[in-house]
Write a structure and sequence with these properties.
Number of strands: 13
Shape: globular
Distance between the termini: 44 Å
Largest sheet: 9 strands, mixed
Number of helices: 10
Strand content: 15-25%
Radius of gyration: 20 Å
Helix content: 25-40%
Length: 352
């Protein structure tokens, strides 16, 4: 798939920042001007990859932003994962690729700050900025906050967000840190590394795919980090809002797939058994609260996982979870039994 004929002729720059769009004219009109204003054109090339939109997104881009962004068009909706894979592969040979959600506003210097961090830390394969709420900029946003972690049962949580509790940003996490996963809402990765580890898994379609990617980046010997000196503001829920049964289905199914793919034979069966028992409890809670849509979504997630897991026959030899920050933790116990609802209240001696 070639770039749109209106592609700008520009010198090679180290970063290609890609916004994936699907019928998002209103989001582009609302957020793209700020992204353009706060992105350094000397180092970053902006590309909007259109995922087979049927609205007038492309017409808007050509009319208002043709001199600021390049347009990459796909004939159909490839999903979040495959859409970004195709866009990164086909947008040219840049050193770094930045994935930016279409409902994201960037603060000044976001790209140059992340570029400097990556240049100074060659051991880091992927990095995210601090992610704040667009509607409440003093509070961390759900999708990534200030860097993501994964506990021993496969539950993700963040500096600044544990389950549904999003903290206020009071500078408590303003130091760069090694993390387990960087948010797909705003993610910078070494392009060649991204391609070498296979990119985002298209079988996931959407949700958890960035955690799976970051797991594979670490299995390849690189680290993942957050650099809070760079910040963005994320609206969130632009594709599937919280509480949507489709989102429930994808989160449950993809979490199981992620663990199945990235755990070695020696621990995979036991870890998946624990996780499926915990998911059964979640299913029972949905039934008891008469949330039939979520109950059906969880059931379908497990049914489809049982079929889809056969696609993954290669597994790593090493279990890296006990060696990475947060990998020994049981976040369910911390949050629900110990009532530790904020990241700074966790016992960080168990983080690595």
């Amino acid at each position: 798939m070639a770039l749109d004929p209106q592609e700008m002729e520009t010198p090679r720059r180290p970063i290609v920042a890609i916004i994936l769009n699907w019928n998002g004219r209103k989001l582009l009109e609302r957020f793209l001007p700020e992204v353009i204003a706060n992105t350094d054109p000397a180092v970053t090339r902006l590309v909007v990859a259109d995922n087979g939109s049927t609205d007038d997104s492309v017409a808007l881009l050509r009319e208002k932003f043709a001199d600021k962004v390049d347009i990459l068009r796909f004939p159909e909706n490839l999903g979040f994962a495959m859409g970004y894979n195709r866009a990164i592969l086909e947008s040219g040979e840049h050193e770094y690729a930045a994935l930016i959600n279409s409902d994201l506003a960037t603060d000044p210097g976001w790209d140059t700050t992340l570029l400097r961090f990556m240049d100074e830390h060659p051991e880091v394969g992927a990095v995210q900025p601090k992610i704040l709420s667009y509607d409440d900029p003093g509070r961390f946003e759900y999708a990534g906050a200030c860097g993501g972690y994964l506990d021993r049962n496969g539950y993700p949580y963040c500096r600044g967000r544990i389950f549904g509790t999003c903290e206020r940003d009071e500078g408590q996490y303003d130091t760069a840190a090694e993390i387990f996963w960087a948010s797909g809402a705003a993610l910078m990765v070494r392009r060649e590394l991204y391609l070498a580890v296979g990119g985002l898994d298209p079988d996931f379609f959407a949700h958890m795919e960035e955690i799976d990617l970051c797991w594979r980046i670490q299995l390849a010997g690189y680290k993942v980090a957050v650099e809070p000196a760079a910040s963005v503001r994320h609206l969130g829920g632009g594709s599937l809002p919280m509480g949507n049964p489709r989102k429930t289905y994808l989160n449950f199914r993809n979490n199981l797939l992620m663990m199945h793919k990235n755990l070695p034979d020696s621990v995979r069966r036991g870890a998946l058994l624990r996780r499926r028992l915990l998911d059964t409890i979640a299913w029972g809670r949905s039934v008891l609260t008469f949330n039939w849509k979520d109950a059906r979504a969880i059931f379908r997630a497990h049914r489809d996982f049982a079929t889809m897991r056969r696609r993954y026959i290669a597994h790593p030899d090493e279990n890296i979870l006990p060696e990475v920050p947060g990998g020994k933790r049981n976040i369910l116990v911390d949050y629900y039994l110990r009532r530790r609802h904020t990241f700074d209240r966790l016992d960080h001696e168990t983080d690595s």
